[in-house]
Amino acid sequence: MDSSILTEKNRNNTSVVVFVLLGLTDEKELQLILFPVFLGIYLLTILWNLGIILLIRMDSHLQTPMYFFLSVLSFIDICYSSSISPSMLSDFFKDEKTISLIGCAIQYFVGCWMALSECCLLAAMAYDRYVAIGNPLQYSTIMAPGFCQKMVAGALGTGFLCSLLETIPAFHMYYCGSNIIQHFFCNIPQILTLSCSDPSITQMIIFLVALLVGFGSLLSILLSYSFIAASILKISSVKCSAKAFNTCASHLAVVTLNYGTALAVYMRPTSSHPDKQDTVLSVFYVIIIPVLNPLIYSLRNKEIKEALRRVMKKVRHLPQ
User: Fold this and answer.
1) Fewer CB within a 10 Å sphere, N or C end of the chain?
2) Helices marked H in the chain — which ranges?
3) How confident is the model at residue 268 (pLDDT cuts 50, 70, 90)?
4) What whole-number distance in Å separates Cα of residue 18 and Cα of residue 104?
5) Across the strands, what pairs with 97?
6) Tell me, what DSSP letter sits at residue 215?
7) How far apart are CA 278 and CA 4, in angstroms?
8) Given this model, what pLDDT does residue 10 score?
9) What span, in angstroms and rounded, lies between the C-alpha atoms of 122 and 106?
10) Cα dihedral angle (276, 278, 279, 283), rounded to 10 degrees?
11) What are 87-111's pLDDT values in tens digits?
């Protein structure tokens, strides 16, 4: 069966097994420009996040809860970017950008899993900063390695279960009409508009997951930072206050970037025909943020820079 647009006669009787993605653009000249740009961003995402993970593993000075969480964040960003970017890049060379129903479900599941896990992880990182600033004498006791590992397992487990809860009903719906997704990846709002089934239950599940995990994590982050602010205000020394705030600056920037863009993308009215602003926001959220997160944490971080110098020094002194 041809995977292109089904004829009007067959639309009511044929179950869709293949979706057609419209991609970012149909203009060949623009595709020639965008492909190397997005390929470079994707490779930089992999290399930079992988570099952060290896650096934290190799340097003993970075064996702290904050950097443990950062290494997990880098792992999540690699998985999230890899769930969408490779297929998007390959679509630049296709006249018909098709993806199977199962492939679409897997892409959505992995992307949703990583996005929800990142929300939970950012909440865990905010709590870590609160303990470090608000209760420094008991920091090593509270944020013990076992507890940190449980927090990470909880974040990944919550993301996995909630993603599964969204994916199963969404892709068990009956799709019998148009098979064209007006996007460059399997974005659930556009997919649900193609269903011949009633999407209300699936939409309710997605709403509840977003409320409990997305806004729940944001509320936890805001609560942690309200306690952090109260703790900083109690510090009499201006220098110590500035130092305490500086330890939170990178995390605050990442939280603002992630949640600000996510809210801009998903709080807009659902449409089967997303406009250019939707596409730009999606590109920023899906492709740009995974490479910005490690940059934000590493460029302003003296400990990361010092660890990199130590590792480079060790490499130079290795026997040839």
Assistant:
1) C
2) 8-11, 28-58, 65-91, 101-134, 139-142, 145-171, 188-192, 200-209, 216-234, 238-266, 276-283, 289-299, 302-316
3) low
4) 9
5) 21
6) I
7) 24
8) 40
9) 24
10) 140
11) 999 988 887 889 999 999 999 999 9
* C-alpha torsion 314→315→317→320, nearest 10: 150
pTM value is 0.88
Distance between CA atoms of residues 142 and 121, nearest Å: 17
Which whole number is the average pLDDT over 2-11?
40
Torsion sign, CA atoms 85, 86, 88, 93 = positive
Helices 289-299 and 302-316 cross at an angle (nearest 10°) of 80
The pair of structure tokens assigned to 65 is 């809860």
**Which residue has better confidence, 238 or 60?**
60
Indicate the residue type of 91.
D
- Residue 271, pLDDT > 70, answer no
Band (pLDDT 50/70/90 cuts) for residue 306 is confident
What stretches of the chain adopt beta strand conformation (E)?
Answer: 18-21, 97-100, 180-181
pLDDT of residue 241: 73
Q: What are the tokens at 78?
A: 């690699």
| Partners of residue 250 on adjacent β-strands | none
Beta strands 180-181 and 97-100, pairing class: unpaired
- The residues facing 19 across adjacent strands are 99
Helix (H, G, I), strand (E, B) or coil at 121: helix
- In this structure, the chain runs to a length of 320
